[in-house]
């Protein structure tokens, strides 16, 4: 193991680290002993190779699931090819494949035969600028087909979601390999076939959830899975298991069906009945207060039952599958099936689900959504009892131990092999391992908590917070990443800094695409970049371009978040501490991710400034601080400004 890892690391131009070796050996043991492993490996450890090497050595197929496209791209385009090259003479099965959901691949039938409009008629190309983008994508799809390329969305020319839908289908809209004229060339089918022939399969959290937890076979047989970015897994599984319904969804399903269902006989008028049910749903949503639906009113329940029953009747009206390859009919029936499944789940109103109504906004219609109250039980039953799982991330140890995260993933703290007592029958043994980080956080970073500031309010940033932000950025001469709890706070801070420090460039999320903003931020050190959630986890800026990270407040979930508040109340009802188990754990994970933006290499230096005094004054503050990298702490703004000034002078 160690020798192979060393050769692989050398092939990638690096050198092995103690933490990386420790992790690789632990991953290998977990795979061999069929145990679960929860491993925290700090940024710079080289955790990708630490699980890829034992994965290649494992006798059976291994699935690697990531949360982000960036990591998937790193694995497939850099780490795995170099690893394969390094071990090519070792006699190992080094085959690998990437597998995504069907809607992530272009559909040759849709590109070549056309796209049904709302009446189910096939149309060629939309008009205007969208039409030009569709034509460009279609040309790219044909090039991919000719060159045997992957034909997946992540390699496509720049496009919007709406344009991509013109060249792709979801699993319900797909004709299937037995009916489709273009099955031999199909990108999704080729990817599936390659995965079935490969030792390593790289996929995403959502597809893993559909395969293992929802029981829909999407991935070839495997006995071991490595889940990287595991701190994201609960959110991704929840997202994959969330359904929503709008009046427009129901109306479109009815319109699409008109051409394909008989206009006489017992099923006549089925499409009109669904359209009528859509009107009833519109009235019910208008009469329902936005927010969580704890007790479903009679009007809303009746409206959902009408939609469900009308959709069921419409599905029957399509008749039996006679093997035809009518794309319009398949798509129309698929839309009706989606409406039926969601309406049925909502009408059932299970205690295991949380239902809420979102208020209509400009261009965004009101919608009713349903999500699982918890996902740990589904993960335990569908994944952990069947597979050997390695959970890996830079942030899994919260409050000083793994118990919070392990519990949310379906692993009980009492099942940890290091816990006192014997494991009972049906226990799922797991180990927790923190391999540390190659960074010397105590020397490389300062954690500054502005204890003298007032507690953040709900009305945006106070004047004292804006003063503090400007003073810190002035000392740093730019080089600042501002992570804010709301778009309003980010814009407010950007406006203040532009006014008071006009010699610096200040960028705000939303003013351009994030890659463009990041590029400008990296290229000019006298620049600030302010934003919200996607910046907390999705940006990597090593070097002199970043020496100050500002966090305006502890990122607790919003009090009106229906799902998080429901989970918190459920934890309280079960005898636990809902605030600590849900809100504080959520905040700790995000806070650790945000603080982790500062130190990305062994040469990085800087300050993380948290402008929320509750980190220092509240009882839960110690839990949050114990979840962060061990930077040198201070509450003295003078010391921090002096340190930033020295960094700015080089």
From TrEMBL:
InterPro entries: ATP-dep_Helicase_C (IPR006555), DEAD/DEAH_box_helicase_dom (IPR011545), DinG/Rad3-like (IPR045028), Helic_SF1/SF2_ATP-bd_DinG/Rad3 (IPR014013), Helicase_ATP-bd (IPR014001), P-loop_NTPase (IPR027417). GO terms for molecular function: DNA helicase activity; hydrolase activity. Pfam families: DEAD, Helicase_C_2. It catalyses: ATP + H2O = ADP + phosphate + H(+). Keywords: ATP-binding, Helicase, Hydrolase, Nucleotide-binding. It is an enzyme of class 5 (isomerase). Its cofactor is [4Fe-4S] cluster. It comes from the Bacteria. Its EC number is 5.6.2.3. Residues 6-303 form the Helicase ATP-binding domain. Belongs to the helicase family. DinG subfamily. PANTHER family: DNA REPAIR DEAD HELICASE RAD3/XP-D SUBFAMILY MEMBER, REGULATOR OF TELOMERE ELONGATION HELICASE 1. This is DNA 5'-3' helicase.
